[in-house]
Amino acid sequence: MISLRHINKLYHTGKSTLVALDDINLTIRKNEIFGILGKSGAGKSTLLRIVNLLERPTSGEVIVDNISLTTLSSRALRMHRQKIGMIFQHFNLLESRSLFDNVALPLEIQSCSKDVIDKKVSTLLELVGLADKHHHFPSELSGGQKQRVGIARALASHPAVLLCDEATSALDTESTQSILNLLKKINRELGLTILLITHELEVVKQVCDRVGVLHHGRLIEEDATVNIFARPKQLATQQLVQQALHFYSPNATDEGLTLKLTFIGDESEIPLISILVKQFDVTMNIRQALIEKIQDTTVGFTICQLTGAPLAIQQALQFIQSTAIQVEVLHGAI
């Protein structure tokens, strides 16, 4: 559905050059929700704007729905952009227009008839849960309601792709949850491909099928969401997950081995503590335990200390490593 091939974006200021995006290669499948995760300044917004060519890459090719946007004429590009909806962090609604008229704007630009506009806008406002607010103005709405209007407006042209630029970062927790539920609903019911950018792992965890991690303009990691949380490969990704989940940090004075154990799905049913204590004569002290629901998969994290005789600790560690449980030594040596 979306293919980015060798995308580079450079900004030249005087004698200096800023590399915003560095050789990005990415394929987003039809009907999936794909998240771009990264800290502020990583290049997320630039990447999103390149997908519909609001910004042109310095080099590389953008392909959407088997059409190379980078080779289109200006007129053809304008036509194709109608199939790419976009919602923004700060909603970008016209304060002088009612909800109905805000949603109708793209259809008016396309010179649709009044009957078509009336039917389409009413359907969209019902879809986003604002059927009773046709004549309200943006100033009368909460932040979550404004974003729902933004989503309805983005859907007015019947797009195949929806781009979401930090769509929940200006919202409170309750409004964020309602918008995420709405995005999942339109992905499921309309078959929309959704590309969202965010710095919030909670957003990624709840709605994304797959995730790409941007770091200093480079796509350093790409995987299923559950693997990004449970088995991050790159240091920058590991740090993002650790900061989001607030993992316990070992003290220099901690005895024995401090381990981080990661359980996915049924792995959590292994009676690990009982086995280690009985078979290897070690003590297992739980420092922290977390359970996260990532889409439909349960992931558990346990930070623990193993103490006992060096040989017993070594054998216990080898046993853990022989299971499906992922183990990482955070502190200590045998």
Description of the molecule:
- The protein has 2 domains: 2-242, Rossmann fold, CATH 3.40.50; 246-331, 2-Layer Sandwich (Alpha-Beta Plaits), CATH 3.30.70.260.
- It is built from 11 helices and 14 strands.
- The protein has helices at residues 44-51, 74-81, 99-109, 114-127, 143-155, 173-190, 201-207, 225-230, 235-245, 272-280, 310-322, and strands spanning 2-13, 16-28, 33-37, 59-64, 67-68, 84-87, 161-165, 193-198, 210-215, 218-224, 257-264, 283-294, 297-307, 326-331.
- The strands form 3 sheets. Strands 6-7-8-3-9-10 form a 6-stranded mixed sheet, with helices on both faces.
- Strand 4 and strand 5 form a beta hairpin.
- The N and C termini lie far apart (50 Å).
Order of secondary-structure elements:
EEEHEEHEHHHEHEHEEHHEHEEHE
In the sheet with the most strands, the strands line up as 6-7-8-3-9-10
Q: Helix count? A: 11
Instruction: Name the CATH superfamily classification of the largest domain.
Output: P-loop containing nucleotide triphosphate hydrolases
| Total E-strand runs | 14
Low-confidence stretches: none
Q: Radius of gyration from the CA trace?
A: 24 Å
Overall number of structural domains: 2
Helix/strand-derived category reads alpha/beta
CATH class assignment of the largest domain: Alpha Beta
CATH topology of the largest domain: Rossmann fold
Instruction: Characterize the largest beta sheet: strand count, sense, and whether it forms a barrel.
Output: 6 strands, mixed
